[in-house]
């Protein structure tokens, strides 16, 4: 089971999302649905997926109307089949309709990330870790990285403050890998130092500088194989750049510790999840 996010990580975000979508009021629903109308709805997976974001969806409904009852039928990290019910919501029909799109936006986006992550994790066969990156929608990083965990992936550094990664532009500014590493060590920062390398020459330079981890960025398979042999266990090896599902079997044979994939959070397709209301929806809670 994935450790849940604290409500403080999303409560304010949900409020902003509702303000964006609802503003001063839901005109269509207000014109059509009587205040006294009650309804039951079900959140339904329309494809096989790994669900993530159920508590965030619940928070949307609660913020719209505290009278809405939420019945969870799945939990984050569950693998769901098409037509599986994820949760039920019961309450004022107008409130359910007003909350629908914002709740689904969160749930579809995060479940899409979790689903894509699980595909990479399954393809790896446990031979290396699947890492995410900082390539996230601004403001949604904590949620996106949570979704990666729901899919069985591992979070890389959360932000610039909790990990050292010397990238190509750092090296250009410093003048060399050795100088960049020297400057970091001179600050007395007690964290492992990772260096991004884009050639076998840079791998040699990172090793000579004493890097704790070396990222092989956009190297060919042959170059990565040579790099792994050169490093020979002296540093943690991360593969990055252009990693697709189709490449995972070949990469698994190279002996790297982990593979980082920006697409997990910046290009995951939304999962197909819908809210189906009223008598046409079977009740799993009865």
Brief summary:
41% of the residues lie in helices and 19% in strands. The protein has 286 residues and is of the alpha/beta class. The strands form three sheets. Strands 6-11-10-9-8-7 form a six-stranded parallel β-sheet.
Question: Can you tell me about this structure?
Answer:
Helix content is 41%, strand content 19%. Helix 8 links the parallel strand 8 and strand 9. The strands form three sheets. Strands 6-11-10-9-8-7 form a six-stranded parallel β-sheet. Strands 3-5-1-12 form a four-stranded antiparallel β-sheet, with helices on one face. Strands 2-4 form a two-stranded antiparallel ribbon. It has 286 residues and is an alpha/beta fold. The C terminus is likely disordered.
Question: What class would the helix/strand composition place it in?
Answer: alpha/beta
Distance between the termini: 26 Å
One letter per element, helices H and strands E, the order comes to HHEEHEEEHEHEHHEHEHEHEHE
> Helix coverage percent of residues?
40-55%
- Which ranges are low-confidence, i.e. pLDDT below 50, for 5 or more consecutive residues? 279-286
Write down the overall mean pLDDT: 95
Q: Count all strands and give the number.
A: 12
Give me the number of helical elements: 11
Please state the CA-atom Rg, rounded to the nearest Å: 23 Å
| DSSP strand content | 15-25%
The largest sheet, given as strand count, sense and whether it forms a barrel, is:
6 strands, parallel
Shape: elongated
Major sheet strand order: 6-11-10-9-8-7
